[in-house]
Amino acid sequence: MSAVLVLLVVLGVLVMLGVALAAASVRVLREYERGVVFRFGRLVAQKGPGLVLLVPIADRMVRVTLRTITHTIPPQDVITRDNVPARVDAVAYFRVVDADASVVDIENYLQATSEIAKTTLRSVLGKAELDTLLSERERLNEDLQRIIDEQTEPWGIKVVAVEIKDVGIPQEMQRAMARQAEAERDRRAKVINAEAEFQAAARLAEAADLLSANPAAMELRYLQTLSEVGKGEGSTVLMPLDVIGSVVRGAGENGRGNGRRLAGVDRPR
Question: Is pTM beyond 0.90 here?
């Protein structure tokens, strides 16, 4: 009886060990995951997605995700090329394209990529002036992406994009930039006013040339201006004596001309 009991206990232990080994040898990888399998410490193959069977005790698998990782680069204190202190933070997007290299060639690709991104951010932005940093972000983003990607490529990492999020500058520099922008707007306004005055003067010169060729037109223009001024009620218009005399002389000449025309017409009988 005791022998049978011992045999049952041994069989139970063996069954439990078999179940545990079977559970340890089966892995399920999602579509975006890959498994790097080591057998007795040597790289065997890359497996997945789906059901993966491992040799118990001999195999060890490391999961690697192929999804794009969003990594926020902490704010970095940089000194621009024109000696202006700035605090810049950015975000990097990268993914694993070679699961074997990301496990074998680098200890922790997430931390390594983060440190490379910080160093490159300080190096690239330190060579740019403040105006470039504020106005040419797209070019700086492309430079950052290219440099970081070149350094992480041996690790099986592809840097998709790097974007500068915010550029912080001291308050004194912000006030100086505001004054500079205001001065620039004033300069543009003065230039526009000067161009308008120049164009108006050119038009007035052309009009004066046309009016000077015909004195009568000049007088008519003067009278038209006076009539426009005197449209309001209770307004008094002062006319120079020379203008009044010229108008009277013109009216007299018109009257004599009309009389001569009437004298040459036969009266009806």
Answer: no
